[in-house]
């Protein structure tokens, strides 16, 4: 479990490195039927920034923890990129796409942690 929380912290730093905004960590451990332990949701202001955030997350996880995502989907149009790290799913959105899918509220009983934006 400690390894998972370290991965969450590392991914969060990877997002912040590229100025990813409005980071929310959803703790799904206590929820029956959840597909993973954590969702990390953030956004970039353009497809180029979404790509840069995705790349940064991958670099941080690989260099610091020797972790690679099992799958990355959505890079083609970079409006919503999902990175699957097994226990941790990362979602990098454009703001309007994020608002539309509203993943934070998919599981109302998840514990949400809002990470302040770095200015």
Protein architecture, described:
The protein is α+β, with helices and mostly antiparallel strands and 119 residues long. The protein is built from 3 helices and 6 strands; from the N terminus they run H-E-E-H-E-E-E-H-E. Strand 4 (80-84) and strand 5 form a beta hairpin. It is globular. The model has no long low-confidence stretch (mean pLDDT 95).
**Average of per-residue pLDDT values:** 95
Tally of DSSP helical segments: 3
Task: Please state the structural category.
Answer: alpha+beta
Instruction: Name the helix and strand elements from N-terminus to C-terminus, one letter apiece.
Output: HEEHEEEHE
Q: Tell how many strands the DSSP assignment holds.
A: 6
């Amino acid at each position: 479990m400690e390894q998972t929380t370290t991965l969450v912290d590392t991914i969060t730093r990877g997002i912040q490195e590229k100025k990813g905004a409005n980071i929310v960590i959803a703790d799904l451990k206590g929820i029956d039927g959840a597909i993973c332990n954590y969702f990390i949701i953030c956004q970039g202001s353009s497809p180029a920034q979404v790509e840069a955030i995705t790349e940064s997350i991958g670099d941080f996880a690989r260099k610091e923890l020797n972790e690679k995502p099992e799958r990355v989907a959505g890079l083609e149009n970079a409006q919503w990129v999902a990175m699957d790290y097994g226990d941790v799913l990362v979602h990098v959105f454009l703001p309007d796409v994020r608002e539309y899918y509203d993943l934070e509220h998919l599981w109302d009983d998840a514990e949400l942690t809002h990470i302040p934006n770095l200015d």
